[in-house]
Every structure is written in C-alpha cells, then in structure tokens.
Write a structure and sequence with these properties.
Layout (H helix, E strand, L loop, with lengths): L4 H5 L15 H13 L5 H10 L1 H7 L10 H10 L2 H17 L5 E8 L15 E8 L4 E9 L5 H12 L4 E4 L7 H8 L2 E3 L1
Parallel strand pairs: 1-4, 4-5
Antiparallel strand pairs: 1-2, 2-3
Helix pairs in contact: 2-3, 2-5, 3-5
C-alpha cells in the first residue's frame, strides 16, 4: 500500500525541542513541497504562498492556526532537518510511481545548491550538490541524493542511485561525464545510457 505525502512527511524525525513548537514538522515540510511546486524559490516566497492560501490550506488539512509558519521558521527547519532521512522518506513515497512508469525513461542530473557555498574565497569552494532522478512519464523526481563538492563526486552518487533503484530495461539520460566505458558496459545489460 502506498503512502500519502502527508503520511510520509510525518515519518521524518523532528529535531526541534518540544518547547516553543507551534507547528508539527510535517506541516512545514508540506508547505515547502507545495510552495516549491508552485514556483517559490525563497523563504519569503514560501511565507507569501502560505499566507495567500491560508484559508484553503487550513480547511483542507484540518489545521487550527491563526497563521502559518513565517519565512524564518521555514528557514530554521530546512537548515536543521536530517536531509538523509528526508530523502529516505521521499524515496519510499515515490516508489509506487517508479513501478507505474511505463516509458522506462529517467533523466539523472546534478546541480550545485545556490547559497550553500562555504569559504567562497578559497581555491576549492565547497558547496552542496543535489543529484536527482526524474521520471519522464510521471513528471516527478523519484529519487535523490546529496554530496559536498569536497567529499564526493557526482559519478559515484549517480552509480549509487542507479544501484538503489535497481530498475530493469530502462533508459537513463545524463551528462556526458557519465559515459565511461567501464560503467556503460556494466549497465548495458540492465539499462541504456544516453
């Protein structure tokens, strides 16, 4: 049986102290997901999204709040949430969508996250990278992983994601950096890389 997104987000462990909590963690994470899907790209935009849709959100989600989380609350949560656990929960939620993917086409790409850079003046800048697997037929990301630029490579993360998904007879599209002879041979028996 597949989980709803809310059921999945409720499984993410709340790292915050109980004292002073106004909103359950799942509410904030759900607002981030919904706001991001609606084009919000900043904390302020997420707060404005929550304000704009306050009536509908509180009615449909059966919430009893005078207001929804502010941009600073959302920021604190996103800075403190256990990303690895969030990814595991997300992957479990997305699993049924992978099984229903009839086209067998998945795009894999990595991006550096804006605003995650540390030591910007150093020769080797460090920032967080996110690699995602996108299902063409479903139109959603079905798996993701992160790594720091100084502690890993996109090639290794993509290799681990493909192994985790363990999909048969599918086609992956990705950057040319991943077209290495050794790995292409290993994958050609199970999947195609283009």
């Amino acid at each position: 049986m597949s989980l709803t997104l809310i059921e999945a987000l409720r499984q993410v462990e709340d790292f915050r102290a109980k004292r002073g909590q106004r909103y359950p963690l799942w509410v904030i994470l759900l607002l981030v997901v919904m706001g991001t899907l609606n084009g919000c790209t900043s904390y302020q935009a997420l707060e404005e999204f929550a304000q704009r849709h306050y009536q509908a959100l509180t009615e449909h989600l059966d919430l009893d709040y005078k207001r929804l989380p502010s941009d600073s609350t959302v920021r604190r949560v996103l800075m403190g949430v256990n990303f690895s656990q969030l990814v595991q929960v997300f992957t479990r939620w997305a699993a049924p969508y992978i099984e229903r993917d009839e086209s067998g086409w998945f795009a894999i790409d990595g991006k550096g996250l804006n605003g995650s850079i540390t030591a910007p003046c150093d020769t080797h800048q460090q920032f967080v990278n996110l690699v995602s697997v996108f299902s063409h037929s479903q139109g959603i990301v079905v798996a993701m992983a992160q790594y720091r630029s100084n502690a890993g490579s996109e090639i290794a993360v993509v290799k681990a994601l493909i192994a985790t998904l363990d999909l048969q007879a599918v086609t992956y599209t990705m950057d040319a950096a991943h077209a290495q002879k050794k790995r292409s041979k290993r994958l050609s028996s199970r999947a195609t890389i283009t």
